[in-house]
Specification:
Strand order of the largest sheet: 4-3-5-6
Structural class: alpha/beta
Strand content: 15-25%
Bound molecules: nicotinamide-adenine-dinucleotide
Helix content: 40-55%
CATH topology of the largest domain: Dehydroquinate synthase-like, alpha domain
Oligomer: single chain
Length: about 350
């Protein structure tokens, strides 16, 4: 089992393994035992698929279970209200512990409940999707969507620990797995640590979800995320690097009629950002081809027609991460992202036409 320590806000550990065998030891190490009242919160799909894990935990802990309907539509105050009510009905107190078992939606919601219930209680995160294992479970951002705006209500609240079992990824639907790969390609571009070459050489094993490949990718991405959030936990500067590919990605995700997943949209957004980087920061042209080849190998999209350009531009300009002008994260070379790069609408239009369009 590999471990990483995150030292930003309240410090915590990330345990990375291909199974949950050492979870009971980790719980003990963190002083979580049958005397402590625990509340495991998940969604209906994870509950059905991983009932065995939940039953096993129930045997060793004093644990109540709550689950809600899976999917992004559940990431709202209605679900939060349901969790608050459940906690009150079951006498959750300031010494209780919440356990989030699921993807980014479960993690973000449970983390938010933990940050607000009785002015803050403890929680642990056991992420079960590729996206949540390489990204959302670490960094302390928790929250929910409101009035159609993603993650507009939220806070920062670190877990007691994060326990990653890559074997959860074996039950993920193909689309969900590929979704996580989109974020991994982003990581391979913002840091030059050989991950892009690894993706290119090992794509077959990755798509077959071989354990050693999954462990390499999860650990590699989290090391990068750790380094960035430790410098800028509150997302006031350098953490913006993690939004590489996300400005255009966000617009595509909102306007696409083809139902692009987040990771697919980030992959396309990364190609546009690379094209812009060639124009603005003289990024060598060969990188575009190299990334395009990796995306193809990983079954991620490389072409996409913007369905409604007006709505797309509106979505980009109203992205809460932007001020008045369109600001991008661009690359001067692989591993050298530059934040807050100003891009005109004309430059963006031509870059889209000349890349994914
Ligand atoms: N907090 C952060 O820093 C951060 C960063 C990135 C994304 N996010 C958030 O994460 C969310 C997306 O995360 P996600 O893609 O994990 O979404 P998700 O939690 O909705 O999971 C996607 C689907 O996979 C299912 N699932 C989960 N684990 C499974 C498993 N092991 N096997 C089979 N199916 C499984 C879920 O039931 C769901 O249907 C978004 O709401 C996004 O805003 C947060």
């Amino acid at each position: 089992m590999k471990e990483l320590e995150i030292i930003s806000g309240k410090p915590y550990r990330i345990y990375i393994d291909n199974n949950l065998d050492k979870l009971s030891t980790v719980l003990e190490e963190n002083k979580i035992n049958s005397k402590m009242k625990c509340f495991l919160i998940t969604d209906d799909k994870v509950y059905k698929l991983h009932k065995d894990v939940i039953e096993k935990l129930k045997k060793s802990l004093n644990m109540e279970l709550y689950y809600f309907k899976n999917g992004e539509e559940s990431k709202d105050f209605h679900t939060i209200e349901g969790i608050y009510s459940f906690l009150i009905e079951n006498n959750c107190n300031r010494n209780s512990l919440l356990i989030a078992l699921g993807g980014g939606v479960v993690g973000d919601l449970v983390g938010f409940v933990a940050s607000t219930f009785m002015r803050g209680i403890k929680y642990v995160n056991i992420p079960t999707t590729l996206l949540s294992q390489v990204d959302s479970s670490v960094g302390g951002k928790v929250g929910y969507n409101f009035k159609g705006i993603k993650n507009i209500i939220g806070s920062f609240h670190n877990p007691e620990f994060v326990y990653i079992g890559t074997n959860f990824l074996k039950t993920l639907e193909k689309k969900q797995f590929i979704d996580g790969l989109g974020e991994i390609v982003k990581y391979s571009l913002i840091r030059d640590d050989g991950m892009l070459a690894y993706l290119k050489e090992n794509y077959k094993g990755i798509l077959e979800r071989e354990n050693d490949k999954l462990l390499y990718l999860v650990k590699g991405c989290l090391k990068i995320k750790k380094d960035i959030i430790e410098q800028d936990y509150e997302d006031l500067g350098i953490r913006n690097i993690l939004n590489f590919g996300h400005t255009v990605g966000h617009g595509l995700e909102i306007t696409s009629k083809e139902n692009l997943s987040h990771g697919e949209a980030v992959a396309l957004g990364s190609l546009v950002a690379i094209r812009l980087s060639e124009d603005i920061l003289k990024l060598p042209k060969r990188i575009y081809n190299e990334v395009e080849e990796v995306l193809k190998k990983l079954n991620l999209p490389i072409k996409h027609k913007v369905d409604n350009y007006k709505l797309f531009m509106y979505a980009i300009n109203h992205d809460k991460k932007n001020d008045d002008s369109i600001k991008f994260v661009l690359l001067s070379k692989i591993g050298e992202p530059k934040i807050k790069m100003e891009v005109t609408k004309e430059q963006l239009y031509h870059a889209i036409k000349d890349s994914i369009g």
